[in-house]
Amino acid sequence: MAGGPGGTGGGVSGGSLMVTMLISAFAAFGGILFGYDTGTISGIIAMEDWLLTFGTFGTLPADRAAELSTTEGYYLTTGDKSLTVSILSAGTFVGALLAYPLGDRLGRKYGLIVACVIFVLGVGIQLDTKFAAFIVGRVVAGLGVGMISCLVPMYQSECAPKQYRGFIVGLYQWAITIGLLLAAIVNESTKDRPDHSAWRIPIAIQFVWAFVLAGGMFVLPESPRFLLLKGRDVEARKALSRLTRRPAESPEIDQECLDISMALEAEMALGKTSYIDCFRSGEARNGLRTWTGILIQGMQQLTGINFIFYYGTTFFRRSGISNPFIITIITNVVNVVMTIPGILLIDRAGRRSLLLWGAVVMLVCEYLVAIVGVTRGQVDAATGAINLPAQRVLIAFVCLYIAAFASTWGPIAWVVTGEIFPLAIRGKAMSMSTASNWLWNFGIGYATPYLVDAPTTGVNGVKTANLGVKVFFLWGSTCLLCVVFTYFFVPETKGLSLEQVDLLYRESSIIKSNSYRKEMLARDETFIHRDTGHGTDKPVDNKHLEEGTAHVEHEKAGNNIAV
After folding, report:
1. Average pLDDT score over the chain
2. Lowest-pLDDT choice from 251-260, 284-293, 457-466
3. Would 316 disulfide with which of 209, 215, 321, 397, CB 3.0-4.6 Å?
């Protein structure tokens, strides 16, 4: 459980690690589904049969000859490429917003199962041979991916022991990177097939990820915090018992239920929690939390990472690298491998410090890539000569940049949005935060070809910014914004239960959060043992569990909170 036994804030230790790992293994399949679906499209749109089926027939403009694949006069225009790659994110944006009503009415568990069904429907539509159907399938699959991308970290955060919470939610990002790598491998294995199976096989494999995730969720318990929010106390105790391997009537389960109920009672005392209330200030500082979640997800996209994974092959080819497909696989391997030390460090080094250092390393690498590319990395227009040392430096710093992202902003953005919101607004706030990620994902995915590609002429001619490698000046500058944002908006929450994170927001500033966090842990401060500021710290007797639950039920009956 994310808070351990809330009465002490010490975490449930007895036999919970195995259950924790099962939660991770099953729920993290949502990340593989997410990453695979995102990564597979970059290879599919370059496959011979896919271009013959969906491409535009005509003469390829000479100034694009070095960038695009052609097959018997068929190629993908800039507009169609932008639409095909980015339209998934339009669906995921809507899906992320729908995750709140889905997750708060059906629950985190059954919400994920329904999302898998929607995703499977979208995958099936994409197997058609009409371009319009392919695009519609991408949108429908995006609805499912958007719901999953919100509900998985929400479920993990609410069910994982606090000492492993960063690691568990970080595994979701690791699964995303594995999905990206698997997509690259599958695309490479099927791209030369002479029929529709070349692109249908990579798409159809996504059925497997959805079935595994849905099957796993049938086995796992519902989130105890969701059950207590709905007043289903007996079911919440059973779920906690499964997660912690303790009897449902044990003192540890009593304390856990008591702390969650007390935290929920404190939230309900503030009144309704509509979408507007998510942005209001006050004791709970919901506005600060919501904007933090929305902005950190947007900043994750503005680091420029998806430029590499969406358009890296085209970029490397244009930069004069002879085998850009191998470089793309290398970057995916770096992404997978370097996520591992990141998720291992989250609960040791902390969220805030890793985000700060990660942003600094990324901005340095991106500025250096841009400088090297502009000064020494260009292909000689007259002779076609390539500066090999410059190309190697460029590749090295791109890999270092990816490593910095994979070990910091990749997993930690999901960890932060999974733990900073109070229970009463968690569904709404997380759905808006995840939607922010997909909104920026869509915008960057759609705009990148127009920012980077060379302009074309003729009937299908398109004017572009033609930035090329200079686009890394843009990504480096946004990483500088990430540093500023982290310093002023992201608190240090290492080692705290979700209820203690709630108290941290109520009683501390962001900049001083780390020192206050240490004081909280030293005092063992929770909603049950809360320092009143007058030198007293009286524990609440266990009999208040029934009173707190009764109060919650009374508040719901009086419609004083939207659930």
Report:
1. 78
2. 457-466
3. 321
CATH of the domain at 98: 1.20.1250.20
**CA atoms of 134 and 84, how far apart (whole Å):** 9
**How many other C-beta atoms are found inside a 10 Å radius of the C-beta of residue 13?**
13
234 C-beta neighbours (distance < 10 Å), count: 9
Locate all alpha helices (DSSP H) within 386-466, ordered by sequence: 388-407, 409-419, 423-452
Q: Do the beta carbons of residue 510 and residue 488 sit within 8 Å?
A: yes
Alpha helices in 3-130 (DSSP H): 16-27, 29-44, 48-54, 78-105, 108-125
- The span from the CA of 31 to the CA of 152, in Å, is 8
Range(s) of the domain holding residue 445: 16-59+70-500
pLDDT, one tens digit per residue, over 26-63 is: 777 788 888 888 778 877 877 878 888 887 766 555 44
Helix, strand, coil shares of the chain as percentages rounded to 5? 70, 0, 30
Nearest to 441 by CA among 74, 11, 96: 96
Does 137 map to a domain?
Answer: yes
Residue 546 domain-assigned (yes or no): no
| SS3 state of residue 117 | helix
What is the Cα 298 distance to its own chain's centre? 10
- Number of domains present in the structure of the chain: 1
